[in-house]
Amino acid sequence: MDLKARTRVWRGGKLEKEHFPAAQISDYLAEPDTVVWLDLCAPDEDGLGIISEEFGLDPLAVEDALSQHERPKLDRYEEHLFFNAYAVRLSEDSGELATHEISAFITDRALVTVRGDEDFDLDALLQQWDSSPDLAEYGVAYLLHGLIDLIVDGHFAAVQSLDAAIDDLEERLFGDEVPTRETQHRSFRLRKSLTMLRRVVLPMREVVNTLLRRDLHVVPDPMTPYFQDVYDHVLRATEWTESLRDVVTSLQETRIALQGNHLNQVMKKLTGWAAVIAVPTAVTGFYGQNVPYPGYGKQWGFVVSLGVLIATALALYAIFKKRDWL
Asked: What confidence tens digit (pLDDT) does each residue in 12-21 have?
């Protein structure tokens, strides 16, 4: 098999071997008290077809594993379960959310993970398993818990980073006299990232809750508290995501209101200055008529007209300034 595969096998709750050829999986599964993990990175249809024959995977589940942009879910088939989820990472600089799809076929003694790309941190998954070797005796449930726990922790970290980014955006929004183009772009990116995050976080509540059902016989009683802890993290991430959506919506409305207020301030000042300028224009226009007027042709008439012009303009400026119109 020409596949980008990584393998591990546990016997009696102890890690026995890793990095062995995928062709040896059937030999290990033929032996008692063994649990096998196989990881495939971006397999083609032929490569995954060979694996599906070896594990007896349902064609519909195989099709879902090959398809992109499947929603997070847990499907039940006759011989196995099919799990689909997304690992996420938020860029603090750009505010953009990167998602990495990962699928898993869950059988009684094997876990087959299928990654859409190499960006999913597989080493972190191995560290997750190696950090709790005492749970390895519970077989596939132990492997599945490590996988889901890593994904949910990533969701929680993304929500936390998104919350900090939104707080920073709020400070920018109220710190600027008027929202800059950069602030508006960052607001849009965070809003888009939050929408994407909700799409991958919210369905995980149903996925983990389904795994806890006793009729599936996937999670043994000793592993139930560990899955319940993951479920609690899912609930917290879900509630946090929902609250952030309200905050982002409020920020969007605030940004629009600030822009409207700024426009009103500009129009108010422009109107005030137009009124100040209109008085000299009216006075000079009146005295510019080609008709006799008080003081016509006299020096004192010019002084009076100039005094009326300056006094009226200063009076309007003082009145508008007092009312904060300028």
From this structure: 999 999 999 8
